[in-house]
Design brief:
Blueprint: E1 3-10, H1 14-26, E2 32-35, E3 52-53, H2 64-82, E4 87-88, E5 92-96, H3 102-114, E6 119-122, H4 124-130, E7 138-142, E8 146-148, H5 150-163, E9 167-169, E10 174-179, E11 195-199, E12 204-212, H6 218-224, E13 232-243, E14 254-257, E15 269-272, E16 278-281, E17 285-286, H7 300-308, H8 310-331, H9 333-340, E18 352-364, E19 375-377, E20 382-387, H10 396-414
Parallel strand pairs: 1-2, 1-12, 2-9, 5-14, 12-20
Antiparallel strand pairs: 3-8, 4-8, 5-7, 6-7, 10-11, 11-12, 13-16, 13-17, 13-18, 14-15, 15-16, 19-20
C-alpha cells in the first residue's frame, strides 16, 4: 500500500518545515507529508549556526536574498514573539579595522539604504561606547539584526504544520523517486500522474508534487528525480569557538568584520546568543563529507563526487590563497586567535573553547562560481530548492511561501 498525499516535502530543516507550514496555511485541507531522514528536525544547517537574524545588508538589491532577508527578519521576530521563542533584536556592528576597508564600509551603508535597512555610521568614540573591548577605525550599526534559536523555530513550524493536518515523518530517508508517467530515476510503484517515493524502510508515498528541500543533499534528490540540477553542492565546514564564561563580558552584542570582496564568506565574527554565550567564527574550510563536522569525518562517496566535479577545482584555483589562510586557522588555534584579535585585541588562546561546527550547503556551478542567490528550479511535478545557505534561516518564512506558491502552481498543472 502506498500512502497518498498532494505535496511531499523532502527535508525537515527550517526551509522544508516552513514550506509545509505555508502550504497548510495557503490551502487548508491540502494533504502534505514531510520526510526527514534524521530522527528530529533541524539537525544540520538549521541547528548548527550562530542563531543570527540577518538584516540583508550584504545582498544585491532586488535579489531573493535581499528581499527575503529583509522581510524574513521582521517576520522571524514576530514569529518568535508569537510562539514564545527566545529572541532579541540587538542590532550589529560592522567594523573596519584597516584603512583600506573604509571605502567598503561606506559602500555597505549605501547598499543597506537601497535595501531599506536602517544603518547608522559610528566613529571611533561611538564604537568604543557600544563595544568597549572591540578595536576599529569606524563602524556601522545595523538596527534590524537579532538572535534567536532556529532549532526551536523549526520545531514550532513542525508543530503548527502538524496541527493543520500535515504528516511530518522523521527517520525516513528517501531512496528512490519515480515520475508516475514512467520517467525519472529510482524504483517505485504507482500509476497515473505525479510521483512515487520509496524510503529506506520500504514505505512508499504517492504525491502530485514533490518539493526538494534536502539542503546538503538537494542536488542528489534532484538527480534521483531524474532532473539535472546544473550545479553541485560543495560542502564547507564552519568551525566555531566560544568565549569561556569569565570572558563573555568582552562582547556585548554582534560584531562583524567588513567582508573581503575577494572571498565569498563573511569572515570570523562575534555573536552573543540568546543564552548569553558568545560564539566566535566561523571560518570556512572544505568538508570531507557532506555532513563532515570535523576533520575526522570522511565519506569516500562525498569526496569522490566533489573531486569529479570541475567546479571544485576552478573554485580552488580562484580562492586558494584565502583557503590556505582558512586551513591554517582551522589547524592552529593560535592562528585562529590571531584572526579574532583584529577585532578583539584582549582575547587569548585560553579564552576560547571549541563549539559545534556547521556545514554550509553551497551550490557551485561547473565554471567554479558560487551560486550567489537562493536558487529554485524544477518542472512538472517537481520543485527543487537548490541553494539555500545563510541567510535562509532568517528568510525561511518568505522562502516557504515562495516554494509553496511554486508547489501549488505545479498542482494546477497536474490537475
Amino acid at each position: 500500500m502506498s500512502r497518498r498525499c498532494d505535496v511531499l516535502v523532502v527535508g525537515g530543516g527550517i526551509v522544508g518545515l516552513s514550506t509545509a507550514y505555508a502550504l497548510t496555511r495557503s490551502a487548508p485541507g491540502l494533504r502534505v507529508t514531510v520526510l526527514e531522514k534524521e530522527p528530529g528536525p533541524a539537525r544540520h544547517q538549521t541547528g548548527r549556526n550562530s542563531g543570527v537574524i540577518h538584516s540583508g545588508i550584504y545582498y544585491r538589491p532586488g535579489s531573493y536574498k535581499a528581499r527575503f532577508a529583509v522581510e524574513g527578519a521582521a517576520e522571524m521576530v514576530a514569529f518568535c514573539a508569537g510562539h514564545g521563542i527566545a529572541h532579541e533584536v540587538t542590532g550589529k556592528l560592522i567594523v573596519a579595522t584597516e584603512h583600506d576597508e573604509l571605502p567598503r564600509l561606506h559602500a555597505l551603508v549605501q547598499r543597506g539604504r537601497e535595501n531599506g535597512i536602517p544603518v547608522r555610521e559610528l566613529g571611533p568614540a561611538q564604537l568604543a561606547a557600544a563595544e568597549p573591548h572591540v578595536r576599529g577605525l569606524a563602524a556601522i550599526h545595523v538596527g534590524t539584526t537579532g538572535v534567536c534559536d532556529y532549532g526551536e523555530v523549526a520545531e514550532a513550524m513542525a508543530r503548527l504544520a502538524r496541527d493543520a493536518g500535515a504528516d511530518v515523518r522523521y527517520g525516513s530517508p528517501v531512496r528512490a523517486i519515480r515520475r508516475d508517467d514512467g520517467t525519472g530515476g529510482g524504483a517505485g510503484g504507482g500509476t497515473g500522474g505525479g510521483v512515487t517515493v520509496r524510503t529506506a524502510s520500504g514505505e512508499t508515498f504517492r504525491a502530485d508534487c514533490l518539493v526538494n528541500c534536502a539542503g546538503l543533499h538537494s542536488d542528489r534528490i534532484a538527480r534521483l528525480a531524474g532532473d539535472d540540477p546544473g550545479m553541485r553542492i560543495v560542502p564547507f565546514r564552519g568551525e566555531y569557538y566560544e568565549l569561556v564564561p569569565r570572558r563573555r563580558h568582552l562582547v556585548r552584542g554582534l560584531v562583524y568584520p567588513v567582508p573581503d570582496p575577494a572571498f565569498p564568506f563573511l569572515g570570523v565574527h562575534l555573536t552573543r546568543g540568546v543564552d548569553g554565550g558568545v560564539h566566535i567564527g566561523p571560518n570556512a574550510v572544505p568538508a570531507l563529507a557532506r555532513e563532515g563536522y570535523s576533520w575526522r569525518t570522511v565519506r569516500v562517496r562525498d569526496l569522490a563526487e566533489t573531486a569529479r566535479f570541475p567546479g571544485t577545482w576552478r573554485i580552488a584555483a580562484r580562492h586558494w590563497r584565502q583557503e590556505v589562510g582558512e586551513l591554517h586557522r582551522s589547524l592552529s588555534k593560535r592562528a585562529f586567535t590571531a584572526a579574532v584579535r583584529r577585532l578583539l585585541p584582549e582575547v587569548r588562546e585560553e579564552d576560547l573553547v571549541p563549539a559545534p561546527a556547521g556545514v554550509r550547503a553551497q551550490a557551485v556551478l561547473p565554471d567554479g562560481s558560487l551560486v550567489d542567490d537562493f536558487l529554485f528550479a524544477g518542472s512538472g511535478p517537481f520543485v527543487h530548492v537548490l541553494n539555500a545557505p545563510s541567510p535562509a534561516a532568517t528568510a525561511s518564512l518568505p522562502i516557504g511561501r515562495e516554494v509553496a506558491r511554486r508547489a501549488l502552481a505545479a498542482l494546477d498543472r497536474v490537475a
